[in-house]
Amino acid sequence: MEPLPASFFNRPTVSVARDLLGARLVHEAPTGTRIVGRIVETEAYTEDDPACHASHLSRDPETGEVVGQGRGQDLFAAPGTAYVYLIYGIHWLLNVVTEPEGTAGAVLIRGVEPEAGIDDMRKERGVDRKVNLTNGPGKLAEAFGIDGDAHKTRLTARPLFFTDGASVEDERVAQSSRIGISKGVERPWRWYVAENRFVSPASPSS
Questions:
Q1: Is 87 exposed, middle or buried (0-12, 13-18, 19+ CB in 10 A)?
Q2: Domains along the chain?
């Protein structure tokens, strides 16, 4: 399993979000175990998107430096960088930075289908049912042992990375509004494998 290169993520965010369906998320733990899941659900966020953490930031036209404060500054990092943050004080969410460095964008990994390391996932999550291990962004981060320590690491190298998988045909891909947002709801920037039981059960925002 070789990591996807930075060039894969150095593209328009919406293209990366669509193309990550079918790819695999891999975490090679220090214990030597390998946790693997096939990506079945993603969401895209860009700097001109009101739902993006970088939407309130700008760049100095002379220096190119990001103007403003907040975690959204890290979305301007090099493509393939991990953007991991905590919501509700409980759940870590895994995003991968996209677009050329200096342009903000990221793809949220919302759901994966477990393929390897399932016993490790069960230990991390404290649940037995396979379908409940990774059908949501907070669940999958916990199942894979991902927390704030992964923030700003490179997802183009071991131990946490993406790798090729089986591509998903267009006829099997569905789109909708993203989940859990109040702005930018008109953008159909959530992609998922239709009828896959590991897609998160939450309803799209409207």
A1: exposed
A2: 6-193 (3.10.300.10)
Q: Report the alpha-carbon distance of residue 134 to residue 113 in Å, rounded.
A: 7
The pLDDT of residue 56 is above 90: no
Please count the other Cβ atoms lying within 10 Å of the Cβ belonging to residue 35: 27
Structure tokens at 109: 């990994």
d(CA 97, CA 106): 4
Q: Please state, in angstroms and rounded to a whole number, the distance separating the CA atoms of residues 173 and 15.
A: 13
Interior CA angle at 88 toward 193 and 52, to 5°? 60
For 135-177, the pLDDT digits (tens) are: 999 999 999 999 999 999 999 999 999 999 999 999 999 999 9
- How many C-beta atoms lie closer than 10 Å to residue 32's C-beta? 6
pLDDT tens per residue across span 5-53: 999 999 999 999 999 999 999 999 877 889 999 999 999 999 999 999 9
The CA-atom distances, in angstroms, between 183 and each of 54, 127, 154, 180, 201 are 13, 33, 29, 10, 20
In this prediction the pTM is 0.94
- Which 3 state secondary structure label does DSSP give 35? strand
Distance CA 203, CA 206 (A): 9
